[in-house]
Amino acid sequence: MSSRAEAPEDAYTAAPFVPDHAGLTALRRAAAGCRGCPLHRDATQTVFGAGSAHARLMLVGEQPGDQEDRRGRPFVGPAGKLLDRALEEAGLDPADAYVTNAVKHFKFTRAEPRKRRIHKAPTLREATACGPWLAAELAVVGPELIVVLGATAGKALLGSSFRVTEVRGTVLEEEIHGRRERLVPTVHPSSVLRADDREAAYRGLVADLEVAARALA
Ligand code: URA
Prior knowledge:
CATH architecture: 3-Layer(aba) Sandwich
Helix content: 25-40%
Oligomer: single chain
Bound molecules: uracil
């Protein structure tokens, strides 16, 4: 048994690490030292959001993957490449968006020591613990529209009853962290890569992003 005292899961929170009234640079620096939940222990680094503080569009994913964890930037792996292609097809420039994740550390398991790292979905508690970073990003960027990529991001922003299949491709208006936000939920791009019918899944993602493009026009 570990002799180290563990905070109980319901006490996980990034809140004490988030500086007040900070811009993105100061937030990113502070997030690098976040110990608000145990995910920082095995991850290489914090993967904070990337993009302009003036972006009109914010994209929120689940958590960094293997490549994002190594490179320190969100959506630079296979899911990110597919997402960029889908955004462009929908008429949105990926370079204009602020891109982030609900959870800022990579969570993974290994089948055997030193074997490949396998993505493991974060718990709702871990996503909730990380919420103060997302709230701070939303306060600084103040996007006109949020594209919610999959269930983890949806639950982090809209609560545990969120079901992506029920609301994908629609424009929602909700109060989030004290601000009225417009959101378009869609599937996570990784689910497109895993789908039996990849082409149909990709077309569905593009159609949802077209709704976002029209909402921003
Ligand atoms: N999946 C995510 O949700 N975010 C990333 O940054 C990469 C893959």
